[in-house]
Structures are given as C-alpha cells and as structure tokens.
Amino acid sequence: MRIAVGAFWAPAAQAAATGAAAAWPAKPLRFVMTAPAGSSIDVIGRVLGDKLRDRLRQPVVVENRVGAGGTIATDLVAKSAPDGYTLVLSFNGPLAFGPHLYSRLPYVPLRDLTPVVLTTSQPNVLAVSSALPVTSLKELIAHARGNPGKLSYASVGNGSSSHLSMELLKSMAGLNMVHVPYNGSPPAIAAVAGSDAQLLFAVPTAITPIAQAGKVKLLAVSGAARYALTPELPTVAEAGIAGFEALAWNGVLVPAGTPAAIVGRLNREINAALKDNAVRAKLNAAGLEPVGGSADAFRALIQSESDKWGPIIRRIGARVD
Fold first, then answer.
1. What is the average pLDDT score of the chain?
2. Do 36 and 181 reside in the same domain of the chain?
3. Residue 39 and residue 156: Cα distance in Å, rounded?
4. What is the DSSP secondary structure assignment for residue 276, as one 8-state letter?
5. Which DSSP string corresponds to 81-132?
6. ∠ CA 42-48-52 to the nearest 5 degrees?
7. Can you list the residues of the chain whose pLDDT is less than 70?
8. How far is residue 209's CA from residue 213's CA, in Å, rounded to a whole number?
9. Total domains in the fold of the chain
C-alpha cells in the first residue's frame, strides 16, 4: 500500500506550529521601528514595548531601522522568520502608499506581512515657520500662489502621510512648492523651525511642543473632523479646501506565516496595553489617540487606504523612484 508523504507531513507540521505557539514567547522579542528615535512611531513603540515586556514576561528590544520612508524596516520584518519574535511598527506610507509610489517595492504588504493591530490614528497638523508672514491656511495659499516655486515643504520621508498630505493640498489648491524629504519628524520639524523649509504636515506628538515654544505656527489639521486633542485648530476643509482628508495611522505587523495563535495572542496583549490608563495617558500627552481592534479590521484598513490613495497618487503624479 502506498501512502502519500504529505499525509504524515501536514499533521506533523501543524503539530509543530501549534507546539511552538503554545511555548511562545520563550525569548526576547525584536520590535522594529520604521522611524528614528524621538518620532511619533518611536514614542508608540517604546510605550508599548515597556507594557508588552511586563505582560509577556520577556524583554522587548526596540530597534530603529530608518530609511526609504519606512520601507527598509518593513521589508526587514517581511523577510524575517515567521516565529512571532520579530515585529514591526509600520504606517500608511510603507503599507498603503508604497505600492503606488515605488516601481519596485521589495515586498507586497498584505502578502508578505500579517497585520496584528492598529495602534493609533490621527490627523497631521499643518505647520509653518514662525518667520512666514501668514496666520491661516487662506493666507498661506495666497502667499504660495504669489510666490510659485519659492516655498519648500519638509516631510518626514518620501511616501509618508506627511509627504502625501502636502501633495494632496498642492493639487487641490493649485500650489507650486518644492519637496524636501527628511528621515523622520525630528529633522523635518527642525528644518521648518529653523526656516530651512517653510512648512510641513506632521503628527501632533511631534509638532505641538515646537509650536508651544513659538518656533512654528499651527494652521489646520488634515482630518475630516477636528481632532479631540487639538480642538482649537480647524480642519483643512473648514479652512477652505472642501473635501480634504488625510490621516496618519500606524500598527503592528509580523511576517506572513506567523502562527495564528501567536498573532491572536499579540493582538490581545497589544489591545490590553492600549486600554491601559497609563499607556493612554502617555500617548495622549504625546498627541496620539490609541485605537486597537481586530487583526482583520487592520487588514481591511490597509486595503481600503491603498484603494483610496492609489488613484490620488496617480492623479497628482507623486513618485519616489
């Protein structure tokens, strides 16, 4: 009697994966950040890393892998062993914009990565140098139209929501401005604070302290509604560009093929961390609003944002390479 080898292999492989998931975690976790120290991504990663260390009873080593608009870190994790010990905190740039901006992205987000959970979602804030003679979006648009090609805008990286939000504003308002990308929010904001660039979109956690110090002026937020943590700022739509909306979001992913039991455990632990009062207080203090939710909901968000931004990116002609 001939028996197919696969008849033995499939149950054995499943049993091995189940056993590995049951023993997880048995060693430290590597938590890769797509942005540099001091960025909003880094703040979220370190706050969650501390809480996960306590909940999982294993060290969580935060590692910043900066470059190429977050795609280097995202690709690193996409190509890592699917054993639950390597995670990435990525964002809409590498996950939803990248496939439409790069001609040869080295990974396919929803093929090579498994979404775990959405961590935070918030608008970008439109900020201008304190030296720029404007105090509102209307005045900024008039000034930019009167000085075509003379204003430069910083972004936190090619393909980021910071970059694409400004490209969308340029397209909808008919503006001609020069893009200057940086590796992360700290150098991008420093460029605007020092008047090396005149404006940028950045998340509240990064830009609010600089505004409080008087180095930049905040004009509007990029969401469809006012942001609960900066209620005094109008939306871009309220300020004159009807229909404008662009959010910055981020979440945790693991390599595709990671056992479902491990993905489920990570989802539960991170959701619990995001509901922790101390964690929420730290993130709110940094201008971030925790979200959480299911892995399936995060996957659906990535797909829907890719579907939304693909046509926009093609229409405005934004490219990274």
1. 92
2. no
3. 9
4. -
5. -SSSSEEEEEEHIIIIIHHHH-TT-SS-HHHHEEEEEEEEEEE-EEEEETTS
6. 140
7. 1-20
8. 6
9. 2
